[in-house]
């Protein structure tokens, strides 16, 4: 029984040596992202947060029949869009929410809210125009539903 134990230990150590270089190659071959890739990733996260927290609440919903029809449906007469104004090195993105009115003969655009997106925390804040403080999108007057009570 004693001669088998060193053989098993030798077998395990050889198999471990075969696995370790593969793990070390995976760790060392992780590509680092460039500044452009990081900026694009932060902007994509900002677009997704604005869409889910603000624009989905403001823009009219399209019926399932229209969404899956073969005919392309035109944009509604009034809808909201967003535009990125600036981005800092820290990953804070400043944006504007724009109201587009297509009822008039010439479409008009109006900035209705400004905000920031902190990509490190994933927090989206809108600026209240009355007091200049930043609040979450659910507390902002643009997306807050009026109380009917």
Q: Give the strand order, joined by hyphens, for the main sheet.
A: 1-2-3-4-5
Write the H/E string, N to C. Answer: HHHEEEEE
Number of domains: 1
- What's the Cα radius of gyration? 27 Å
Helix content class: 25-40%
Quickly count the helices.
3
The total strand number stands at 5
What is the makeup of the main sheet? 5 strands, antiparallel
| Class per helix and strand makeup | alpha+beta
Indicate the low-confidence ranges by residue numbers.
Answer: none
Share of β-strand residues = 25-35%
Shape, principal axes of CA atoms: elongated
Q: Give the termini distance in whole angstroms.
A: 85 Å
Mean pLDDT: 77
How does this structure look, described?
- There is one protein chain.
- This protein has 149 residues and is of the alpha+beta class.
- The chain has one domain (35-149).
- It contains three helices and five strands.
- It has a five-stranded antiparallel β-sheet.
Task: Please outline what is shown here.
The chain is 36% helix and 26% strand.
Structural features:
26% strand, single chain, 5-stranded antiparallel beta sheet, 149 residues, 3 helices, 36% helix, elongated, alpha+beta
Topology:
Elements: H1 4-28, H2 35-58, H3 64-67, E1 78-87, E2 92-101, E3 108-118, E4 123-127, E5 134-136
Antiparallel strand pairs: 1-2, 2-3, 3-4, 4-5
